[in-house]
């Protein structure tokens, strides 16, 4: 498979998590910043390889083979992120783009040894689950901070937005995976939250709260 084909499979996989009945060509084009006509051409190629099921105007879904390949790409990406953070001391806002390149390495033995070397991690540095070698994903129950109850203790387990800007904001506020969070007050007008994070009081916007996963 080419790098471009792998990128398409990964995008279809991620979008299908919220659109399981079919991913539109426009959605793919938007994610990859390309023309819808180019997406259509690629989908035909992927369909010829039995990696996707595609009908014009009906959207696209991954075949069983395509789904497995997509999960393996995600697996490599997230394992490399763990390696970069835990072993090379990159910060969690630096690793995504590097892992985007490393995820295209084709050696399965290398990835299996990387997985073992890291101690078979279940989650990446952003709290996203890592598929195992068979493509099985251990899902964890979680909710957004914006949906949480007042005066109940939670733990930060992930981020919805993994952009560099958002992760740097969290670093600045000393919010990380494992941080304890308790909502003290919620402003009815704009849903701004007064929270206690690791014992420190902090006011955060609804935009921040809708991008933090807790458990």
UniProtKB/TrEMBL annotation:
PROSITE patterns in the record: HTH_DTXR (PS50944)
InterPro entries for the chain: DtxR_MntR_Metal-Reg, Fe-transptr_FeoA-like, Fe_dep_repressor, Fe_dep_repressor_sf, FeoA_core_dom, HTH_DTXR, Iron_dep_repressor, WH-like_DNA-bd_sf
Cell compartments where the protein resides: Cytoplasm
SUPFAM superfamilies named in the record: Iron-dependent repressor protein, dimerization domain (SSF47979), Winged helix' DNA-binding domain (SSF46785)
UniProt keyword terms in alphabetical order: Activator, Cytoplasm, DNA-binding, Manganese, Repressor, Transcription, Transcription regulation
A GO term from the CC aspect: cytoplasm
Record-annotated HTH dtxR-type domain positions: 1-63
Coiled coil (residue ranges): none
Molecular function as annotated in GO: DNA binding; DNA-binding transcription factor activity; protein dimerization activity; transition metal ion binding
Domain of life: Bacteria
Presence of the UniProt keyword Membrane in the record: no
Function in brief: In the presence of manganese, represses expression of mntH and mntS. Up-regulates expression of mntP.
Family to which this protein belongs: Belongs to the DtxR/MntR family.
Subunit structure, as described in the record: Homodimer.
Name by which UniProt lists this protein: Transcriptional regulator MntR
């Amino acid at each position: 498979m080419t790098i471009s084909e792998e990128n398409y499979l990964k995008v279809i996989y991620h979008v299908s998590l919220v659109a399981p009945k079919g991913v539109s060509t426009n959605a793919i084009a938007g994610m990859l910043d390309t023309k819808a006509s180019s997406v259509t051409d690629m989908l035909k190629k992927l369909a010829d390889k039995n990696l996707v099921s595609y009908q014009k105007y009906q959207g696209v879904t991954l075949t069983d083979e395509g789904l497995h390949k997509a999960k393996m790409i995600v697996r490599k990406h997230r394992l490399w992120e763990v390696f970069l953070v835990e072993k090379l001391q990159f910060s969690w806002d630096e690793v995504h783009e590097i892992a985007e390149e490393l995820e295209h390495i084709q050696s399965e033995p290398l990835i299996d040894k990387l997985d073992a070397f890291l101690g078979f991690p279940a989650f990446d540095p952003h709290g996203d689950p890592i598929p195992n070698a068979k493509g099985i994903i251990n899902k964890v129950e979680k909710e957004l901070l914006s949906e949480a109850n007042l005066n109940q203790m939670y733990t930060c387990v992930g981020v919805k937005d993994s952009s560099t800007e958002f992760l740097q904001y969290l670093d600045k506020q000393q919010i990380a995976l494992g941080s304890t969070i308790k909502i003290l007050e919620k402003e009815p007008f704009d849903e701004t939250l007064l929270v206690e994070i690791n014992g420190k009081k902090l006011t955060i916007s609804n935009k921040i709260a809708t991008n933090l996963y807790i458990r």
